[in-house]
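Retro notes, item 3 of 5
We never archived the inputs for the magnesium ion complex last cycle. Fixing that now. Sequence and ligand:
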Amino acid sequence: MKSVKFLNELPAKEQKDFFESFDTIFFDLDGVIWHSYVPIPGAVDCLNNLKKLGKNVHFVTNNSTKTCQNILEILKTAGINADLPDIVNPLKTMIFLLKKSNVTDPLYAMAPKASKNELLENGYKILPETPHVDMDQIPEILLHHDQAKEQTIGAVLLDLDLNLDYMKVQKAFWYLKYNPNSLFLVNSMDKTAPVGPKGPIFATYYFVECLREMLRVDNVNRGDFIQIGKPSQVMVDYIKETFNISQSNRVMFVGDSIESDMATAAKGDFQKLLVLSGTEKRESLDNWGYPDNYKPDFVAEDLGVLNDILKSLYD
Ligand SMILES: [Mg+2]
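Structure as it came back at the time:
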């Protein structure tokens, strides 16, 4: 099995080889650049110094509770100069996929407001929210059945929706059942979402599985879900096409999660740098439980350490 290189333990020559081995660098945000939008010490300096070295710096996040515009503003407030096209989120890959699939019919979105707004801004119609229904009103629930059966939809989107309830899931099932050619789009299959010391909270995975089980039980004949966030193929395709990546080995992908970030890098044949400032700790490397090709090429404690190495070589 390939050995992992801790950047701070390498001789200066190999550290320099590392910085010269890529032209473009993608950063995950949560756990890499910041925690709850508070920058990790040294991260801002690190990004700016990489830009000074002439590197193309971009960002890839699965967080869809903020629009790319919101993220851009947070980056700028932190002192990172970026442009809107530099930021990739699942909404962008979703729109990329909807365009490629020629989807123009309305969408049923179980998603945060930010996601819905971004879809509306891109010209997509979103079906209205399903109102809460009292459980003693079965006839009212069945009216939703009739309405869903008659409605043509382009896609059902299931993202982290904090207002998800029985009726929304039931209606999603009906839309998927009666629109077998529609897309069933899922942001991520994360089981949990980090929310600080009181967390984590359960994430999208369980709700996707619930809908899949409902479709299975009802013998619905339709395509399975398509994941749009990391580590999906759609995300990798979007990145390669949008940033004109012709030599994937000249790309460095930096993340704090093996299953999300390192897996994305593996799919895209990018170089992999794992930081230990978020999801993964050293034990994840010592007790390796993932496919071998997810193994990072390099590891750094955090972007502060990466910045110290960069300064020691180039200042
Ligand atoms: Mg992360």
